[in-house]
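Exercise 3.2. Students should predict the tertiary structure of the chain below and write it as structure tokens, then compare their answer with the key that follows.

Predict this chain's 3D structure.
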Amino acid sequence: MANYTRSYGANARAQDWDDFEEEARPQRTGSWLPLEALEDELYFPGAGPQAMPAPAAPSRVDTTTRNPVRGGQAAQAPTTKRAPRERQQASGVPARLVAMLVGGALAALALYGAVSAAVEWTQIKLDDVQYGRPRTAQIDAFVGHGETDGVPSHFIAMNLNRRVTIIELPGGDGAKSSTIVGPYLFGANEDLTPVQASAQDVNGDGKPDLVVTAKSEQLIYLNDGAAFKLITPEQQASLRKVQATVPGAAAGDAVPQEATK
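Answer key:
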């Protein structure tokens, strides 16, 4: 392109757009820019030369914490989570040992419950064979009630719907039967509790008395010669005093007649 002489007079030619581009564009040498344009400035086409940004200063590293130091203060080291093994060692007792102890305790409780249920079931079945349902025990004894023919009196002790019931047949005669109504048994499965009876002289008066046992309790019915009557608290207190003087005597044991006099 030809160079034109600029004139500021009346005949001056107006500059063309190519003239501005030619003036603003640096001279190229072939396809490369001159070294002067690359020393301290960056060249962006259409935007003119701009200053190259200074490189950022490298951050100083604290050799003790291995973290960058910014603003003269050391950055805090990030908190790391403890591994499961470290937590177990810090707690003192391994979690696996605690789990084994808890599992062993639960297994022992389950075993105890199973054994207890098996023992109770076995005992109920044995009582079914021996006492039946309702639980019934029968004895024969000479107690001096209408036994003129030499036939002993017959006693039936029952757990009739949790009620202790004793039926006496004097001399084996059902027409002269009498019934003794005992206490009511409270608690779970008490309708399956066996009731036992025995005839023995408790107070040492020479007449056999009736001793009824339900679980660990004893009921004493004293024989007055015609019937059986439940012992009174006063009679029971005096009986205990007499039994205390007799070596080896216990509740329900026969007391010699000499001791009561």
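Discussion points: Residues 93-130 form one domain. The helical segments are 17-24, 36-39, 84-91, 95-131, 233-245, 257-260.
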